[in-house]
């Protein structure tokens, strides 16, 4: 019976992750609709990703410290509720400025949510299976890319972007109710260790995170533009390819999640090296079919990216919540930097430069992983 309750709780946390990732990446799925609706450029919509990430990076550590004594379930509930409010405001936004404010509401709680959700999952399954627990919960991330983003893209084309964003707000409210009903109270963990020790242990993980996430989001933020330019697909065909991309991401999560505890370095190398290989293929002039295959396969390493990196954090951290907060800073700075660089490349008609940056970042992160003890089974 306890195993069943644990499974239900993990499923509820996974559902919350699904909503969080879908909401965070709405500017990716609805880029042309947002741009037309607010009368701004595609790169300005990309800034909704960049600004979101900057707010998360700046606020996560002080907010995690402020909520350190909170029950972890309470912290998760507050942040999921913030997603619902954020998307309600976005659906009603009369202009771009209000859209920015709406995004910042969710961004303020985003870092707290991701700081607590993986440690909560790890406590449910135990320290020896922290990577597996993270993979189970982060299945919501992959399902967001498999269903959430393509469905959002399709709904945006079909019924308009405002009803689509309103639906995401409703899904967030429902997720909060489900988490409250199925996840037991989770008291805060032990006090944090000395800052210096924490920083030294996490430095290589955070550096690898910053590099690989910067590269990934330099390209991924504008994946719809890459599909249009390289694969020559638009409209419903774009949604179909995004669905295939999401399916490959789910496969990557399953394969990597099964091995992340027993083979942490090998799985990390799959993530970093796989990103580099897929980006190099996208840079090779060729048929749309080849580029389309690269877009789909790109999701395999991307699907396991957060699991591999978060598992490394939990492996070396004495205080998981604060360590996760520091890691999230690196992740969000990577998103912000990548989205900004990719947007500049898009504005100058040089989107292949963003793809080349992603390839280089994948290679650089591969070198970091190979040299870091944090990606060994016993750091």
From TrEMBL:
Major site of localization recorded for this protein: membrane
Membrane topology: Multi-pass membrane protein
Segments passing through the bilayer: 47-68, 75-94, 100-121, 133-155, 161-183, 203-227, 233-254, 266-284, 290-313, 325-345, 351-369
InterPro entries per UniProt: MFS, MFS_dom, MFS_Efflux_Transporters, MFS_trans_sf
Keyword Cell inner membrane in record: no
UniProt cross-references to Pfam families, sorted A to Z: MFS_1 (PF07690)
Cellular compartment(s): Cell membrane
Keywords linked to the UniProt accession: Cell membrane, Membrane, Transmembrane, Transmembrane helix
Domain Major facilitator superfamily (MFS) profile, first and last residues per copy: 9-373
Source taxon at top rank: Bacteria
Gene3D superfamilies noted in UniProt: MFS general substrate transporter like domains
UniProt keyword annotation of Acetylation present: no
PANTHER family for the chain: CHLORAMPHENICOL EFFLUX PUMP RV0191, PURINE EFFLUX PUMP PBUE
Stated name of the protein: MFS transporter
Lineage per the UniProt record: Bacteria, Bacillati, Actinomycetota, Actinomycetes, Pseudonocardiales
